[in-house]
């Protein structure tokens, strides 16, 4: 399909129609929903400028704290699609961030300042300072998967309320609260943040992890616990965003394992208004932002969607409590012809021994099949489906 990108970030399609990539998030008009998350990619004003020039809708600064600590080396390890980091906070002082934020703003960046503090008064102080520096919004960090061990600063709703309200009462810009997956009840925490005046919730922070062990040397790949990010944590992030979206009436920003346009749509269909990326951009470069945006436009346009509001929350109605699910007598369809002679995934993955392959035809024993559905996702050709059991 012929198209060209306009200066506003919209895509102009043949015939003069527009697919609008922009979103309104926390009252901020963003040219698209892709935000670069707090981390190595936003460690300075120059890096935030690069992210914006590559097409990002906004940037979240590397986390700003009162007391800086030097980062260790090495601090990043990648395995398959996942990454562990033991990187702490910004190595710039609070005062130095005034210049970094100003530099990014010079180039038109929408800057969300990530801040972390241990007491309400400290949180309020840093929040006021970054507002004066020119930040457009604030993201409150509430946890650290490394350094502080398993302690999550605000796993308790009352404590989270106190930390959040200390900031929201002292600033006039939007405040977003970033939730950790290392908690027991995310819905209660999200409600506490909303009650405290938060403008949005972002979820999730990285997952506490040890990514692996060098079994020849008998050593962990990194010398302490750290935060796990990348594709493997996406299911955790999706569940968190769905939970939060069903619990509160403020916008949600989805984070965790977003590597392509499909993942962006997944988060939005579960209620997210925007998304944050870090690991996939670290591994593929800033130019990858434009690839995701182009793929988003093509997918949306092919299905007749004019903007992201038309898909946001679409999948939430398909989620039910376990008690609401109706037990139906479904079984795998049979017989089904399969010409993939080298594949026996359907039969080998059937824990009930209900599928057999005979002369390229899959036969289902309906008395054994319980309709669990594992073979459907295991089949590389996606030719299986559940049917009503006669």
From TrEMBL:
The protein's annotated pathway: Pyrimidine metabolism; UMP biosynthesis via de novo pathway; orotate from (S)-dihydroorotate (NAD(+) route): step 1/1
- Cofactor(s) listed in the protein's UniProt record: FMN
Query: What broad class of enzyme is this?
Result: oxidoreductase
Give the GO terms filed under biological process for this record. Answer: thymine catabolic process; uracil catabolic process
**Is Cytoplasm there in the keyword field?**
no
Q: Which reaction does it catalyse?
A: (S)-dihydroorotate + NAD(+) = orotate + NADH + H(+); 5,6-dihydrothymine + NAD(+) = thymine + NADH + H(+); 5,6-dihydrouracil + NAD(+) = uracil + NADH + H(+)
Record keywords: Transport included?
A: no
Question: What GO terms are given for molecular function?
Answer: dihydroorotate dehydrogenase (NAD+) activity; dihydropyrimidine dehydrogenase (NAD+) activity; iron-sulfur cluster binding; metal ion binding; NADP binding; uracil binding
Q: Which ranges carry the 4Fe-4S ferredoxin-type domain?
A: 359-389
Query: One Pfam match, by short name?
Result: Fer4
A cellular component term from Gene Ontology for this protein is: cytoplasm
Supply the alphabetized keyword list: Flavoprotein, FMN, Iron, Iron-sulfur, Metal-binding, NAD, Oxidoreductase
Q: What is its EC number?
A: 1.3.1.1, 1.3.1.14
Per the similarity annotation, which family is this?
Belongs to the dihydropyrimidine dehydrogenase family. Belongs to the dihydroorotate dehydrogenase family. Type 1 subfamily.
Briefly state the protein's biological role.
Catalyzes the conversion of dihydroorotate to orotate with NAD(+) as electron acceptor.
Q: How does it assemble?
A: Heterotetramer of 2 PreA and 2 PreT subunits.
User: Which PANTHER family does the record match to this protein?
Assistant: DIHYDROPYRIMIDINE DEHYDROGENASE [NADP(+)]
Listed name of the protein: Dihydroorotate dehydrogenase B (NAD(+)), catalytic subunit
Question: What species is this protein from?
Answer: Thermanaerosceptrum fracticalcis
């Amino acid at each position: 399909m012929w198209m060209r990108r306009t200066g506003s970030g919209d895509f102009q399609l043949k015939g003069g129609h527009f697919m609008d990539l922009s979103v309104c998030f926390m009252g901020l008009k963003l040219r698209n929903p892709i935000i670069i998350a707090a981390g190595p990619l936003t460690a300075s004003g120059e890096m935030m400028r690069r992210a914006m020039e590559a097409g990002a809708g906004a940037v979240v600064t590397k986390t700003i704290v009162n007391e800086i600590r030097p980062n260790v080396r090495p601090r990043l390890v990648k395995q398959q699609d996942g990454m562990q980091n033991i990187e702490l906070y910004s190595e710039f002082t609070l005062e130095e961030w005034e210049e970094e934020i100003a530099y990014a703003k010079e180039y038109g960046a929408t800057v969300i300042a990530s801040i972390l503090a241990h007491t309400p008064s400290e949180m309020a102080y840093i929040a006021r300072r970054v507002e004066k520096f020119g930040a457009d919004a604030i993201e409150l960090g509430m946890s650290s998967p490394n350094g502080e061990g398993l302690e999550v600063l605000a796993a308790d709703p009352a404590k989270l309320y106190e930390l959040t309200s200390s900031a929201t009462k002292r600033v006039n810009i939007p405040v977003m609260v970033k939730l950790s997956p290392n908690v027991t009840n995310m819905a209660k925490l999200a409600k506490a943040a909303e009650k405290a005046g938060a403008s949005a919730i972002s979820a999730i922070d990285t997952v506490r992890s040890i990514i692996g062990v060098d079994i020849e040397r008998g050593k962990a790949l990194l010398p302490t616990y750290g935060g796990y990010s990348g594709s493997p944590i996406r299911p955790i992030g999706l569940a968190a965003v769905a939970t939060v979206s069903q619990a509160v009436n403020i916008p949600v920003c989805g984070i965790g394992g977003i590597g392509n346009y499909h993942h962006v749509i997944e988060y939005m269909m579960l209620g997210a208004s925007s998304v944050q990326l870090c690991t996939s951009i670290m591994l593929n470069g800033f130019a990858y932002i434009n690839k995701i945006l182009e793929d988003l436009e093509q997918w949306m346009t092919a299905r007749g969607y004019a903007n992201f509001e038309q898909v946001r929350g679409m999948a939430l109605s398909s989620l039910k409590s376990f008690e609401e699910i109706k037990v139906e007598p479904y079984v795998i369809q049979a017989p089904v012809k399969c010409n993939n002679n080298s594949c026996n995934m359907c039969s080998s993955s059937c824990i009930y021994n209900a599928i057999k392959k005979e002369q390229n035809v899959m036969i289902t024993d309906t008395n054994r099949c319980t309709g669990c559905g594992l073979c459907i996702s295991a089949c590389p050709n996606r030719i299986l489906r559940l049917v009503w059991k006669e």
